[in-house]
Amino acid sequence: MGSVAVIERLMRGAIDFHVHAAPDPFHERRHDALDLARYSKEAGMRAVVAKNHQYGTALLAHLVNKMVPGFTLVGSLSLNRESGGLNPDIVEAAARAGAKVVWMPTTSSVISSRGKPGIPILDEEKRLLPEVTAILEIIKANDMVVGTGHIALEEIYALAARATELGAKVTITHPLTTGFGCKLTLEQQQELVAMGALIEHSFVACMPILGGMSPKIMVDHIKAHPHGCNSVEPRSS
Predict the structure, then answer these.
(1) Whether the Cβ atoms of residue 234 and residue 16 lie closer than 8 Å to each other
(2) How far apart are CA 102 and CA 142, in angstroms?
(3) What is the pLDDT along the chain (237 residues), one digit of tens a residue?
(4) Of 30, 34, 204, 222, which is most buried, counting CB atoms within 10 Å of its CB?
(5) Is the CB of residue 158 less than 8 Å from the CB of residue 127?
(6) d(Cα 163, Cα 175) in Å, to the nearest integer?
């Protein structure tokens, strides 16, 4: 089977868990949300999760899905400063609007925020903040998924432990990507999978703009915990 045929087969019914599309307040994106849905449907994909760092995408997804039948654009929310931070009320509203994925702080995290104080999810004694637990309870109640975003390593472990304790689905966001949160070793990924988390690998780590990591490294990591990976994202950003 030729490489094009292999790619076409892999795309049929695929779900991309993490795509940034326009409109975006701070970045130029290759496609807007409507074209993203149309092109993804043409490729035979089943669904795409639309992500933005500064606003929730559930309402945008609702409109796009009316315009592109037979395909699902999934709404999400990133808990950054611009979207309200660690606010359970905003998460509840996003859930009611149809969002299915909630990321912990990304551009506003303690290790990724630039020029302004980051948003921690742990208190001074390294315990999860009460509002984070409240958010996880909302996520569990609405059958949503929590992603770790760009938080620090100790925050990742604490979040994964509490999420699995509550029965909430948790994904570890692009652990091999440089410059967006912390990179995780294979052993750390395996520990988190053993706790009940899924690993969200992103192909953006292999693109030249982020150092061009060999795809074989990602393949080796996926094979090392085959039951703990939920996607390898091509991404449109």
Answers:
(1) yes
(2) 11
(3) 678 888 889 899 999 999 999 999 999 998 999 999 999 999 999 999 999 999 999 999 999 999 999 999 999 999 999 999 999 999 999 999 999 999 999 999 999 998 889 999 999 999 999 999 999 999 999 999 999 999 999 999 999 999 999 999 999 999 999 889 999 999 999 999 999 999 999 999 999 988 899 999 999 999 987 666 654 444 444
(4) 204
(5) yes
(6) 18
| Concatenated DSSP letters of the chain | --HHHHHHHHHTT-EEEEEE-B--SS---SSBHHHHHHHHHHTT--EEEEE-SSS--HHHHHHHHHHSTT-EEEPEEE--GGGTSS-HHHHHHHHHTT--EEEPPSTTBTTT--SS--B-SB-TTSPBPHHHHHHHHHHHHTT-EEE-TT--HHHHHHHHHHHHHHT-EEEEE-TT-TTSS----HHHHHHHHHHT-EEEEEGGGGSGGGT---HHHHHHHHHHSGGGEEEEE----
Residue where the block lists tokens 């990924």: 189
AA identity, residue 46: R
Give pTM, 2 decimals.
Answer: 0.93
